[in-house]
Design goal:
Number of strands of chain B: 3
Shape of chain B: elongated
Largest interface: A-B, 49 and 52 residues
Number of helices of chain B: 26
Distance between the termini of chain B: 117 Å
Low-confidence stretches of chain B: none
Number of domains of chain A: 1
Distance between the termini of chain A: 51 Å
Radius of gyration of chain A: 22 Å
Largest sheet of chain B: 2 strands, antiparallel
Number of strands of chain A: 1
Helix content of chain B: over 70%
Order of helices and strands of chain B: HHEEHHHHHHHHHHHHHHHHHHHEHHHHH
Structural class of chain B: mainly alpha
Structural class of chain A: mainly alpha
Helix content of chain A: 55-70%
Mean pLDDT of chain A: 80
Oligomer: heterodimer
Strand content of chain B: under 5%
Shape of chain A: elongated
Number of helices of chain A: 3
Mean pLDDT of chain B: 89
Strand content of chain A: under 5%
Chain lengths: 83, 582
């Protein structure tokens, strides 16, 4: 229960900080970037959320099954066990 | 002080520390690097140290401009931190290797000609090898051997390129962009191996986790950053570097999310951060190149601090896997503080060093029109925050207590001093970026502390926490090994070598058999050449009582004495008769 509450609190802090930064960006920022994400307020929120999910899902669901092996992978099979 | 070479001071420090008893070793290790730093500060852009060599060739031990002064300075600072961090070491060889390695790195950075560069380059490769072997485990011995093979290959490629340059009359190091000859590619390969350019990077994730605790700090701070300096010096403006750099950054970004070994994870991050630098130098405009220089500078500080923190955890607990740790903040609170300073720095949190250097590269890329590059680097930044600040930070320090985590020995004060210096510098340069910007080689106008920069980073970093928390139960790494490009030379290449070896052995054995058959046949054929010539023996039986001997026996083929005697006598008589008749 406590863990759920603290998790909820963290979510609220994060969303609050993001919302404040968004408001500040809209009111005070003078973007001098060249890309569309530099001109639309809050574009970095979308980039971070989508990018983060894409990275996690790609790494965990596609990359990990492809490249992860047992820790003694190199020690079995006779190529590396010369000790 | 301008007459002293900081690298040579470090090398000398290593030898002095190595011959002293352990209890006195801390004095040269503290004083030597500080003297080297003082010597470095005594040098200024434009300083030179030239020594005559053979055939009119001059060795430019020091040939300073703004860029290599900055790198020389940060490497000397790194040597100071390294000197403190390695003080606890009981091995004279480790101390010697560490300081000679640091001296070699400074030597490569400050030199102005190819010959001096290759000398110090090989010195760094040879000395750093012992930082791996000093760990003295079966895994470190094997990893060290692979490290040696890779670096000797890289060193020889570089040597071949340098040979072409020097034989063509080019003695001094210059930017190679636009040449595209054999020397260009050979030098790029040689430097690329040291700079951990994917797919030539696997030595780093293979060897660094197996080095000694202090060794990985030295290596994490030095080799790749020295190679990054060479990349900037030699290949600034080469467009191929943009693609290599972005691939490095994204490649590492994916692996760091699944990696479990702390030092291996940080090694992947070295690849990723060097990717930022390589992409920046590839863009080639003043902002991006200066960003690459600045990022290499800040990288030395926060990457070495990260290696120091995980080294301190490994030193005290003996545990190197993330999933075996938890609740470390209660046992090592200061290390926790230093770790998060480094993590915030590498993630680009405002007022920490990464923020002031990453944003330079990204803005430079955007100004040059590489918007896709800016986007890719933003995603790589998110991955850095996700894997170091969130994943490592949470699972090592704040995840539920693990009973296996026992502080077996306290963190030495000297280690804390080293971490304290690095942390201080991470914050100092983060808060006062002009200390670094004013020293950068190219002129540019850039304001890092603007509202849009702050809001962009706050949004990127805050929002990245949400998927991490939503997926928290799956984010904990498993006790598994991630295969990397070293797989090619640890599995198929080994099989290929074994296959070729077996083929050579089988061919040798078959040739031996064939030779034996031929030899026996020849022997039996030549046992009696008279038989081979179809000549019948004059005598079929032996002279004695024994059996008839096999093979050739002269006695059996010798004719009776009477026949030649009759012929001889007849000829004699004929001759006498002719003489008498005359």
């Amino acid at each position: 229960m406590m863990e759920k509450l603290s998790k909820k609190l963290i979510y609220m802090i994060l969303i609050g900080a993001t919302a404040v930064s968004l408001v500040v960006e809209i009111l005070f920022a003078h973007p001098h970037g060249h890309a569309i994400w530099d001109t639309i307020p809050g574009a970095d929120i979308v980039i971070a959320f989508v990018g983060c999910w894409a990275l996690i899902l790609f790494s965990k669901k596609i990359l990990a099954p492809l490249v992860q092996r047992d820790e003694d992978y190199y020690d079995k099979g006779g190529d590396d066990n010369d000790e | 002080m301008s007459n002293f070479h900081p690298g040579l001071i470090l090398i000398l420090t290593g030898f002095i520390a190595a011959v002293l008893p352990q209890k006195y070793r801390k004095f040269p290790l503290a004083i030597g690097p500080i003297l080297a730093l003082a010597a470095m500060l005594g040098l200024q852009p434009g300083s030179m140290m030239v020594v005559p060599f053979i055939n009119g060739y001059e060795l430019h031990f020091i040939n300073l401009d703004k860029m290599n002064w900055l790198f020389g300075f940060v490497f000397c600072v790194m040597a100071v931190m390294g000197g403190f961090y390695i003080m606890h070491s009981e091995s004279w060889l480790e101390v010697l290797a560490g300081m000679v390695y640091a001296g070699g790195i400074v030597g490569v950075t400050l030199c102005g000609d190819w010959m001096t560069m290759i000398f110090f380059w090989e010195l760094t490769a040879a000395s750093s090898l012992f930082l791996i072997w000093c760990n003295n485990t079966p895994a470190s011995r094997k990893a060290g051997f692979r490290y040696l093979m890779v670096h000797m290959t890289g060193g020889n490629l570089l040597l071949a390129g340098i040979f072409l340059k020097v034989s063509g009359g080019e003695f001094l190091i210059t930017n190679l962009t636009g040449t595209c000859d054999a020397a260009y590619w050979l030098i790029m390969l040689g430097v690329g191996i040291n700079a951990a350019v994917v797919p030539l990077h696997a030595w780093i994730t293979d060897a660094y986790p197996e080095a000694t605790v202090a060794g990985s700090v030295f290596m994490g701070g030095f080799t790749t950053k020295m190679a990054a300096y060479c990349m900037i010096r030699l290949f600034s403006g080469s467009e191929i570097m943009i693609y290599l750099g972005v691939f490095m950054a994204l490649y590492a970004s994916c692996f760091v999310i699944i990696e479990n070994d702390m030092r291996r994870l940080l090694s992947f991050h070295i690849v990723g951060q060097i990717g930022f630098i390589v992409a920046g130098l590839g863009v080639g405009n003043a902002l991006a190149v200066d960003g690459a220089v600045a990022h290499a500078f800040t990288n030395v500080l926060f990457k070495s601090l990260l290696f120091m923190c995980v080294g301190a955890i490994i030193y005290t607990t003996g545990i190197r896997k993330i999933n075996q740790l938890g609740g470390v903040y209660k046992k090592l609170p200061l290390v926790t503080l230093f770790f998060f300073i480094a993590a915030f720095s590498i993630s680009g949190v405002p007022f920490f060093t990464g923020f002031i250097s990453k944003s330079l590269i990204m803005t430079g890329a955007a100004e040059a029109g590489y918007l896709w590059l800016e986007m890719c680097l933003k995603i790589a930044s998110i991955a850095t925050f996700l894997s170091i600040t969130l994943k490592m930070g949470y699972f090592i320090f704040f995840h539920e207590d693990n009973d296996n985590v026992v502080v077996k020995r306290p963190v030495p004060t000297s280690m804390y001093i080293a971490m304290g210096i690095a942390s201080f510098l991470c914050v100092l340069y983060g808060v006062f970026p002009d200390l670094l910007y004013s020293r950068l080689p190219l002129e540019f106008e850039y304001h890092v502390f603007t509202v849009d920069h702050f809001t962009a980073y706050i949004q990127l970093l805050c929002v990245a926490v949400i998927p991490f928390m939503m997926y928290l139960s799956h984010m904990k790494p498993h006790s598994q090994l991630s295969l990397d490009f070293d797989w090619f030379y640890r599995k198929p290449f080994v099989s290929l070598v074994m296959g070729i070896s077996s083929l050579v052995c089988a061919t040798r054995a078959a040739l031996g058999e064939a030779c034996l058959v031929f030899y026996n046949a020849f022997n039996s054929l030549m046992a009696n050449p008279m038989q081979f010539l179809n000549m019948e023996p004059h005598r079929l039986e032996s002279d004695g009582d024994g059996p008839v001997p096999e093979g050739y026996t002269p006695e059996r083929y010798r004719s009776a004495i009477g026949e030649p005697m009759i012929i001889t006598m007849t000829a004699l008589l004929v001759a006498i008769a002719i003489i008498a008749l005359k």
